[in-house]
Design goal:
Two copies of one chain form a homodimer.
Chain A lengths: L4 H12 L4 E2 H11 L5 H13 L3 E4 L5 E4 L5 E5 L5 E4 L2 H13 L3 E12 L4
Parallel strand pairs in A: 4-6
Antiparallel strand pairs in A: 1-3, 2-3, 4-5
Chain A binds a DNA duplex (30 and 30 nucleotides) through α1 and α3.
DNA sequence: ATATTAAATAAGAATCATTACTATCTTATA
DNA sequence: TATAAGATAGTAATGATTCTTATTTAATAT
């Protein structure tokens, strides 16, 4: 992987903005610093960073990417749209152990609860 | 909601084929029985049936729809693609109760584990 | 049973996200 | 510094979904 300006800038954008972002949002941010950047380049770099395990493409919020981090459980508020991490690792581990006993190997998971958050 | 042939046939398709299907798959099946049906009609009916709580549009497998049924936990095999329901309701209920205690109201959830199934 | 009308449809255009293509440019290396 | 493989810009192409509009049809009143 060659260290091009485009790659470096996109990585920096993810380091600065913690949240999940669409390809277009990233394109706009990158464009401020590198006006000649192409949207196609943004997409290609995003795909590369996903296969490199640097980023994760969310299945839930289609077309959004975020820094790959430890496993988490999401709660998405239907009113304000805020996404927060919630506790529950123990219970999930328990489910995963039962799967292992049955001969299934778990490599990834996505756990999302939808509803109304405390503030709304 | 008027009982048009298009609507009736699409509902029947979901009653016959239990799995999750894309709009295009449904279109092709419906087209056999109603050659004049339009893909746009399929999409509109699918959207209507989702707002009517008859169908559910899956976030995980983008663009796929399935009959709305009781809550379940999915395991998707990365090799053969098979989707199966797995046990774990108790643990999930426990997580939901904790959320309720914190003042969050849960209305929906999506829980998917990815990995390799017993057969693969 | 037939006329009426609001809702639904067919067909294709339009939109939006994403990928493919290709000539040009750039990073890493000799 | 020259070179070549890899990356890029710009745009065309694709695929899923929605929009538009003239036409058709199911439900209802006659």
């Amino acid at each position: 992987m060659r260290q091009t300006n485009q790659l470096i800038i996109i990585k920096e954008i993810f380091q600065k903005y913690e949240g999940h972002q669409t390809a277009n949002e990233i394109y706009k941010k990158a464009h401020r610093r590198l006006p000649a950047i192409s949207l196609a380049t943004v997409y290609r770099i995003l795909n590369t960073l996903v296969t490199e395990n640097y980023l994760e493409r969310l299945n839930i919020e289609e077309g959004r990417y975020e820094l790959k981090k430890e496993k988490h459980i999401h709660f998405i508020c239907n009113k304000c749209g805020k996404i927060q991490n919630i506790p529950g690792e123990e219970q999930i581990k328990s489910i995963e152990e039962n799967l292992k006993k049955k001969g299934m190997k778990v490599s990834k998971r996505e756990i999302i609860f939808y509803g109304i958050c405390k503030e709304c």
